[in-house]
Amino acid sequence: MNVSKNDHSRQKLLYTIVEFTDGIEMVPTIWLSDDKKSCIWPPTKDQIRINKTIANLEVSRNEDEWPVCEILKIFGTAQSYKTGKEKLKMAEQISDIDSASGTEYADCLRKSRHS
């Protein structure tokens, strides 16, 4: 997969909030493929290392070492790590609402309005 490193239009929006088959995550925009349908992912299961890699906008010297993951949905973009984390939390809540039944959603709204 060819990840564009010199795309100036994407450099301003450093992070993208994406949905994978196993969850929602914030990734550096430079990890996305040109068509934004997939992205590379660090080949580690160490969540602390993954978080540092994301925060530091790291890219492997050899992209072939990083697996390519399919993107199901893009929730948004952010100019900073902090803003990206805030948008990630919102995306996770939206995703929870989308997966809740109509009754659960109505109950949630009722509780939040009366709190």
**How does the major sheet shape up?**
3 strands, antiparallel
Fraction in helix = 25-40%
SSE run: HEEEHEEHH
Percentage of β-strand residues: 15-25%
Query: How many helical stretches?
Result: 4
Mean pLDDT: 81
| Global Rg | 16 Å
Give the N-terminus to C-terminus distance in angstroms.
49 Å
Q: Trace the largest sheet across and list its strands.
A: 2-1-5
Q: How many extended strands?
A: 5
| Broad shape | globular
> Helix/strand-derived class?
alpha+beta
Which parts are unreliable, with pLDDT below 50 for 5 consecutive residues or more? 4-10, 101-105, 107-115
- Work out the count of structural domains: 1
3D architecture notes:
This protein has 115 residues and is of the alpha+beta class. The protein has one domain (8-114). It contains four helices and five strands; from the N terminus they run αβββαββαα. The protein has helices spanning 8-11, 47-55, 81-99, 102-114; strands at residues 15-20, 23-28, 38-40, 68-70, 73-78. A hairpin with a 2-residue loop joins strand 1 (15-20) and strand 2. The longest helix has 19 residues, at 81-99. The chain is globular.
Topology:
Blueprint: H1 8-11, E1 15-20, E2 23-28, E3 38-40, H2 47-55, E4 68-70, E5 73-78, H3 81-99, H4 102-114
Antiparallel strand pairs: 1-2, 1-5, 3-4
